[in-house]
Amino acid sequence: AVVTAAVALAPAASAQANNESFVTLVDVSAQRALIADDVAAFKFNTGGSIEDPAREQVLLDSVADQSTQLGVDPAVAQAIFRDEIDGNKIVQYGLFDLWTAHPELTPTEWPDLTTVIRPELDKITTELMDQIKATSDLQVAKNCGEQLDAATNVVEQRRNLDRLHSQALHHALARVCHS
Ligand SMILES: C=C(O[C@@H]1C=C(C(=O)O)C=C[C@H]1O)C(=O)O
Protein backbone atom coordinates (compact mmCIF):
# COMPACT_ATOMS: atom_id res chain seq x y z
CA ALA A 1 0.00 0.00 0.00
CA VAL A 2 2.88 2.34 0.79
CA VAL A 3 4.51 1.71 -2.58
CA THR A 4 1.23 2.25 -4.45
CA ALA A 5 0.66 5.56 -2.70
CA ALA A 6 4.17 6.78 -3.56
CA VAL A 7 3.73 5.89 -7.23
CA ALA A 8 0.32 7.53 -7.37
CA LEU A 9 1.67 10.73 -5.83
CA ALA A 10 4.68 11.04 -8.11
CA PRO A 11 2.99 12.63 -11.18
CA ALA A 12 1.02 15.14 -9.12
CA ALA A 13 4.12 16.09 -7.14
CA SER A 14 6.17 16.70 -10.26
CA ALA A 15 3.39 18.67 -11.93
CA GLN A 16 3.23 20.85 -8.85
CA ALA A 17 7.01 21.28 -8.83
CA ASN A 18 6.86 22.43 -12.47
CA ASN A 19 4.14 24.90 -11.75
CA GLU A 20 5.89 26.13 -8.63
CA SER A 21 9.02 26.91 -10.61
CA PHE A 22 7.09 29.41 -12.78
CA VAL A 23 5.36 30.77 -9.68
CA THR A 24 8.67 32.07 -8.34
CA LEU A 25 9.64 33.66 -11.66
CA VAL A 26 6.20 35.28 -11.90
CA ASP A 27 6.29 36.40 -8.28
CA VAL A 28 9.67 38.10 -8.67
CA SER A 29 8.32 39.74 -11.85
CA ALA A 30 5.34 41.00 -9.85
CA GLN A 31 7.73 42.43 -7.24
CA ARG A 32 9.54 44.21 -10.06
CA ALA A 33 6.28 45.71 -11.36
CA LEU A 34 5.34 46.82 -7.83
CA ILE A 35 8.70 48.56 -7.29
CA ALA A 36 7.74 50.74 -10.28
CA ASP A 37 5.46 52.60 -7.82
CA ASP A 38 8.53 53.80 -5.92
CA VAL A 39 10.37 54.65 -9.15
CA ALA A 40 7.37 56.66 -10.35
CA ALA A 41 6.98 58.44 -6.99
CA PHE A 42 10.65 59.45 -7.05
CA LYS A 43 10.55 60.64 -10.66
CA PHE A 44 7.17 62.38 -10.44
CA ASN A 45 8.20 64.31 -7.34
CA THR A 46 11.71 65.17 -8.51
CA GLY A 47 10.77 66.02 -12.10
CA GLY A 48 12.70 63.10 -13.53
CA SER A 49 12.01 61.36 -16.84
CA ILE A 50 10.46 57.88 -16.85
CA GLU A 51 12.80 56.89 -19.67
CA ASP A 52 16.48 56.31 -18.88
CA PRO A 53 18.02 54.53 -21.89
CA ALA A 54 21.54 54.59 -20.37
CA ARG A 55 20.36 52.74 -17.27
CA GLU A 56 18.45 50.27 -19.46
CA GLN A 57 21.61 49.55 -21.43
CA VAL A 58 23.62 48.96 -18.23
CA LEU A 59 20.94 46.55 -17.09
CA LEU A 60 20.78 44.66 -20.41
CA ASP A 61 24.60 44.42 -20.50
CA SER A 62 24.56 42.98 -16.99
CA VAL A 63 21.89 40.48 -18.09
CA ALA A 64 24.14 39.35 -20.95
CA ASP A 65 27.07 38.94 -18.51
CA GLN A 66 25.03 36.98 -16.01
CA SER A 67 23.62 34.81 -18.82
CA THR A 68 27.11 33.78 -19.85
CA GLN A 69 28.00 32.96 -16.24
CA LEU A 70 24.82 30.89 -15.75
CA GLY A 71 24.86 29.15 -19.13
CA VAL A 72 21.60 30.81 -20.20
CA ASP A 73 20.98 31.99 -23.78
CA PRO A 74 21.67 35.77 -23.59
CA ALA A 75 19.13 36.48 -26.35
CA VAL A 76 16.37 34.76 -24.36
CA ALA A 77 17.28 36.56 -21.13
CA GLN A 78 17.60 39.94 -22.83
CA ALA A 79 14.21 39.55 -24.56
CA ILE A 80 12.60 38.79 -21.20
CA PHE A 81 14.29 41.78 -19.57
CA ARG A 82 13.32 44.06 -22.46
CA ASP A 83 9.71 43.14 -21.63
CA GLU A 84 10.29 43.48 -17.87
CA ILE A 85 11.61 47.03 -18.43
CA ASP A 86 8.70 47.98 -20.69
CA GLY A 87 6.28 46.49 -18.16
CA ASN A 88 7.85 48.63 -15.44
CA LYS A 89 7.36 51.72 -17.60
CA ILE A 90 3.68 50.82 -18.19
CA VAL A 91 3.19 51.16 -14.42
CA GLN A 92 5.16 54.42 -14.29
CA TYR A 93 3.19 56.01 -17.16
CA GLY A 94 -0.08 54.84 -15.61
CA LEU A 95 0.79 56.37 -12.23
CA PHE A 96 2.04 59.64 -13.82
CA ASP A 97 -1.36 59.92 -15.55
CA LEU A 98 -3.21 59.13 -12.33
CA TRP A 99 -1.21 61.63 -10.24
CA THR A 100 -1.51 64.32 -12.90
CA ALA A 101 -5.29 63.93 -12.90
CA HIS A 102 -5.49 63.49 -9.11
CA PRO A 103 -2.56 65.32 -7.48
CA GLU A 104 -3.98 64.51 -4.03
CA LEU A 105 -3.07 60.85 -4.65
CA THR A 106 0.63 61.63 -5.23
CA PRO A 107 2.85 59.96 -2.58
CA THR A 108 4.45 62.38 -0.15
CA GLU A 109 7.46 60.17 0.63
CA TRP A 110 9.58 58.02 -1.65
CA PRO A 111 12.87 56.09 -1.47
CA ASP A 112 15.92 57.41 -3.30
CA LEU A 113 16.28 56.02 -6.82
CA THR A 114 20.07 55.60 -6.93
CA THR A 115 20.85 54.44 -3.41
CA VAL A 116 17.71 52.42 -2.60
CA ILE A 117 15.47 51.51 -5.54
CA ARG A 118 18.03 50.58 -8.19
CA PRO A 119 19.99 48.34 -5.77
CA GLU A 120 16.66 46.56 -5.10
CA LEU A 121 16.10 46.21 -8.85
CA ASP A 122 19.64 44.84 -9.24
CA LYS A 123 18.89 42.18 -6.61
CA ILE A 124 15.72 41.29 -8.51
CA THR A 125 17.76 40.98 -11.70
CA THR A 126 19.91 38.28 -10.08
CA GLU A 127 16.82 36.48 -8.76
CA LEU A 128 15.12 36.64 -12.14
CA MET A 129 18.24 35.33 -13.87
CA ASP A 130 18.26 32.35 -11.48
CA GLN A 131 14.59 31.73 -12.29
CA ILE A 132 15.18 32.04 -16.04
CA LYS A 133 17.84 29.38 -15.65
CA ALA A 134 15.66 27.19 -13.39
CA THR A 135 12.70 27.25 -15.80
CA SER A 136 14.60 26.80 -19.07
CA ASP A 137 12.96 23.42 -19.81
CA LEU A 138 9.49 24.72 -18.94
CA GLN A 139 9.98 27.68 -21.29
CA VAL A 140 10.04 25.35 -24.29
CA ALA A 141 7.48 22.83 -23.00
CA LYS A 142 4.33 22.30 -25.05
CA ASN A 143 2.16 23.45 -22.16
CA CYS A 144 4.37 26.43 -21.27
CA GLY A 145 1.58 28.95 -21.89
CA GLU A 146 -0.83 27.05 -19.65
CA GLN A 147 1.72 26.73 -16.87
CA LEU A 148 2.63 30.39 -17.12
CA ASP A 149 -1.02 31.47 -17.06
CA ALA A 150 -1.69 29.27 -14.03
CA ALA A 151 1.30 30.72 -12.18
CA THR A 152 0.28 34.26 -13.17
CA ASN A 153 -3.23 33.74 -11.80
CA VAL A 154 -1.81 32.46 -8.50
CA VAL A 155 0.49 35.47 -8.13
CA GLU A 156 -2.16 38.01 -9.19
CA GLN A 157 -4.45 36.71 -6.47
CA ARG A 158 -1.78 36.30 -3.78
CA ARG A 159 -0.51 39.81 -4.35
CA ASN A 160 -3.92 41.27 -5.07
CA LEU A 161 -2.65 43.04 -8.19
CA ASP A 162 -4.72 45.85 -9.66
CA ARG A 163 -5.32 46.19 -13.41
CA LEU A 164 -2.28 48.38 -14.04
CA HIS A 165 0.18 45.99 -12.35
CA SER A 166 -1.53 42.99 -13.88
CA GLN A 167 -1.15 44.52 -17.35
CA ALA A 168 2.52 45.24 -16.62
CA LEU A 169 3.05 41.69 -15.38
CA HIS A 170 1.54 40.18 -18.53
CA HIS A 171 3.74 42.41 -20.67
CA ALA A 172 6.82 41.44 -18.64
CA LEU A 173 6.17 37.72 -19.18
CA ALA A 174 5.20 37.85 -22.86
CA ARG A 175 8.37 36.13 -24.13
CA VAL A 176 8.99 33.66 -21.28
CA CYS A 177 7.54 30.86 -23.44
CA HIS A 178 9.48 30.35 -26.65
CA SER A 179 10.58 27.52 -28.89
C1 LIG B 1 13.03 51.66 -13.37
C2 LIG B 1 13.49 52.75 -14.00
O1 LIG B 1 12.78 53.40 -15.05
C3 LIG B 1 12.86 52.92 -16.39
C4 LIG B 1 12.75 51.45 -16.36
C5 LIG B 1 13.87 50.69 -16.14
C6 LIG B 1 13.76 49.29 -15.65
O2 LIG B 1 12.66 48.73 -15.67
O3 LIG B 1 14.78 48.73 -15.19
C7 LIG B 1 15.15 51.26 -16.34
C8 LIG B 1 15.30 52.55 -16.73
C9 LIG B 1 14.15 53.44 -17.04
O4 LIG B 1 13.99 53.53 -18.44
C10 LIG B 1 14.75 53.39 -13.58
O5 LIG B 1 15.01 54.50 -14.06
O6 LIG B 1 15.49 52.78 -12.80
TrEMBL record:
Keyword Transmembrane assigned: no
Keyword flag Isomerase: yes
PROSITE patterns, per the entry: CHORISMATE_MUT_2 (PS51168), TAT (PS51318)
Keyword terms, alphabetized: Isomerase, Signal
Gene3D superfamilies registered for this protein in UniProt: Chorismate mutase
GO molecular function: chorismate mutase activity
Entry superkingdom: Bacteria
InterPro entries in alphabetical order: Chorismate_II_sf, Chorismate_mutase-related, Chorismate_mutase_periplasmic, CM_dom_sf, CM_II_prokaryot, TAT_signal
Residue stretches making up the Chorismate mutase domain: 4-96
Assigned EC number: 5.4.99.5
BP term (GO), one: chorismate metabolic process
Pathway it works in: Metabolic intermediate biosynthesis; prephenate biosynthesis; prephenate from chorismate: step 1/1
Protein name: chorismate mutase
